[in-house]
């Protein structure tokens, strides 16, 4: 691959563009639960006041998802587009996937008793569609963009591990 080869559509995040408006959280929660409640969003905007940056974070659609490995019922699976999904009929709500996710990108909606995780809105992600600054984009990714995304995820993971120490 030469870095320009298309590898499918994915969410591309440009943290330097984020204004911290949290439109992505509200759009996602409405799509998922018909309510404007960021607690029910599969996107979380982390705000780092000291550095004056905001970063939207959602499921990384990992190549080798730890959440899928720990799921005892097989409720977490990958579809034909490599999107990591949850079969709500199989899920028993044990929350092992929440613990296994290195990035904290799965949560639990106690009101609806369901897991909340990005599923790319079936190919029409509202977070990207409604992001006013263009921070979140859903587009054909190149292998170079995916490598950059993986490097950013690893850096974020190591920062989270440092904070937990």
TrEMBL record:
One of its GO terms (molecular function) is metal ion binding. Residues 9-39, 49-81, 82-111, 112-141 form the 4Fe-4S ferredoxin-type domain. Keywords: 4Fe-4S, Electron transport, Iron, Iron-sulfur, Metal-binding, Transport. It comes from the Bacteria. PANTHER family: DIMETHYLSULFOXIDE REDUCTASE CHAIN B (PTHR42859:SF10), OXIDOREDUCTASE (PTHR42859). This is Fe-S-cluster-containing dehydrogenase component. It comes from Fonticella tunisiensis. The lineage of its organism: Bacteria, Bacillati, Bacillota, Clostridia, Eubacteriales.
């Amino acid at each position: 691959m030469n870095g320009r080869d298309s590898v499918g559509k994915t969410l591309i995040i440009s943290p330097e563009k984020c204004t911290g408006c949290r439109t992505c959280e509200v759009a996602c929660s409405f799509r998922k639960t018909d309510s404007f409640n960021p607690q029910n969003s599969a996107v979380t905007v982390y705000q780092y006041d000291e550095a004056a940056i905001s970063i939207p974070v959602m499921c990384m659609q990992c190549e080798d998802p730890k959440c899928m490995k720990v799921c005892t019922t097989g409720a977490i699976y990958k579809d034909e587009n490599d999107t990591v999904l949850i079969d709500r009929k199989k899920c028993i709500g044990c929350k092992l996937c929440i613990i296994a996710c290195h990035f904290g990108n799965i949560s639990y909606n106690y009101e609806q008793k369901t897991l909340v995780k990005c599923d790319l809105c079936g190919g029409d992600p509202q977070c990207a569609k409604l992001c006013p600054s263009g921070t979140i984009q859903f587009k054909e990714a190149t292998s170079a963009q995916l490598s950059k995304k993986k490097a950013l995820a690893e850096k974020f993971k190591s920062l989270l591990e440092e904070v937990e120490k």
